[in-house]
Design a protein that fits this description.
By secondary structure, the protein is of the alpha/beta class. The protein is built from 8 helices and 7 strands; from the N terminus they run E-H-E-H-E-E-H-H-E-H-E-H-E-H-H. Helix 4 runs parallel beside helix 5 and helix 7 crosses helix 8. The protein is globular and about 45 Å long.
Length: about 230
């Protein structure tokens, strides 16, 4: 994985799921060749260790259905430890993404969402990014600086889908604002969320890769995809 440059600056109730899916439906979808680009960003600091294995199991399965639809280019970005923030190459093979994810271990350190956003901004300007999925549980940075970069990312047409583990109020405020500024969505995870999360992320990935046709195929066995299809015009 490449080191990112140092100076690169919801509840599971049905109403919240519907609101989340309503945001997803406006996400940029695949081009004529059936290719989408999605950045998957993870907080890999030590506070996530208790739920790390379970989260990896969900996250590594989320793109499995894209083998049946168009190509989805995915880049893994994570931060952890002392000033460590890395980005993988873009990959189209879900198995390759799974291997990249499972190789990451948690290390103590502060959050580095600013560097993630700066990286996303650069990638969006350079090659275009359909959407970003971020999973984290804490926020320890300057919220005004974060919002400035998030707004710039939003102007480039890249939407951030912010998933929060736990109940940290500071993280919730920051994540919600990042989602708002990028026309994305915020979602709170809890002990009852794994199945919901897996379906939601699978629906996002399938839609990014193959558009409505891919969702129609997936909807035969996925409640989240069915809910998403109902909201698409």
């Amino acid at each position: 994985m490449n080191q990112i440059r140092k100076n690169a600056a919801a509840p599971t109730h049905s109403g919240d799921v519907s609101a989340f899916l309503d945001k997803v439906k406006t996400m940029a979808v695949a081009d004529a060749k059936g290719e989408g680009r999605l950045v998957f960003a993870m907080d890999a600091t030590m506070s996530r260790q208790p739920t790390w294995d379970a989260a990896l199991a969900i996250q590594s399965r989320m793109f499995s259905e894209t083998k049946k639809v168009g190509q989805l280019q995915v880049q893994l970005v994570y931060f952890r430890g002392f000033n460590e923030c890395k980005a993988s190459k873009w990959v189209a093979d879900p198995d390759a993404l799974s291997r990249l994810m499972t190789a990451v271990e948690c290390r103590g350190g502060n959050t580095q969402l600013a560097r993630v956003l700066s990286h996303v901004k650069a990638e969006s300007a350079r090659t275009g990014v359909s959407a970003v999925v971020f999973v984290g549980d804490a926020f320890e940075e300057n919220v005004d600086a974060i919002c400035q970069t998030a707004g710039e990312v939003g102007l480039l047409g890249t939407r951030l889908f912010m998933f929060q583990e736990g109940n940290d109020a500071t993280a919730e405020r920051a994540f919600r604002e990042v989602a708002r500024l990028t026309n994305g969505a915020y979602f709170r995870l809890d002990a009852a969320s794994p199945g919901v999360l897996a379906e939601l992320l699978g629906a996002v990935a399938a839609y990014a890769a193959g558009g409505r046709k891919a969702l129609e195929t997936r909807a035969k066995s996925s409640n989240a995809s069915q809910a998403l299809l109902k909201q698409l015009k």
